[in-house]
Design goal:
Blueprint (H helix, E strand, L loop, with lengths): L6 E6 L4 H10 L11 E7 L2 E11 L2 E9 L8 H13 L3 E5 L4 H6 L2 E3 L5 H12 L5 E5 L4
Parallel strand pairs: 4-5
Antiparallel strand pairs: 1-2, 2-3, 3-4, 5-7, 6-7
Length: about 140
């Protein structure tokens, strides 16, 4: 584990998306950074320790595949990436997450929602067909 360095958060240029996919693969994380996504990363020095995708679904933003290297989980790095994303977009962002993660997402400004735009409802139904237990959340930027 690297200590004593400040987390550097930035939106990654698409040319570097294969680095994020390699990071996801290293930890067997499902989800792939694709050219139409916005990808945010967190580095300590030169080490990639966190990544997150923002998908554009119709006119909606959808947060997906937030992952922090297990050696760095619980240290606030995921929270800081979400806050950087919220600050950058300054608009509503949707996400699906396991209900056990509700307290974490509530702590960064997301609230459970029962009504979704049609495009996101279709996505959620696809996930649910694969027996994934997910709740939907919405963040309204308020900083």
């Amino acid at each position: 584990m690297i200590t004593g360095l400040e987390l550097q958060i930035s939106q990654l240029e698409p040319l570097k998306y294969p680095l994020v996919n390699k990071f996801y693969d290293q930890f067997r994380v499902k989800g792939r950074a694709k050219g139409h996504d916005d990808v945010w990363v967190g580095y300590l020095g030169y080490q990639l320790i966190a990544a997150c995708r923002i998908q554009h679904v119709a006119e909606h933003l959808f947060l997906s595949t937030l992952f922090v290297d297990p050696a760095y989980q619980g240290l606030g790095y995921g929270r800081r990436i979400i806050q950087a994303i919220q600050s950058s977009y300054q608009t509503k962002i949707y996400l699906f997450a396991h209900p056990d993660l509700s307290p974490f997402y509530a702590s960064v400004g997301f609230a459970a929602v029962n009504t979704l735009p049609d495009e996101l409802t279709k996505m959620l139904k696809i996930y649910q067909k694969h027996n994934l237990s997910l709740a939907s959340f919405l963040s309204t930027y308020s900083h």
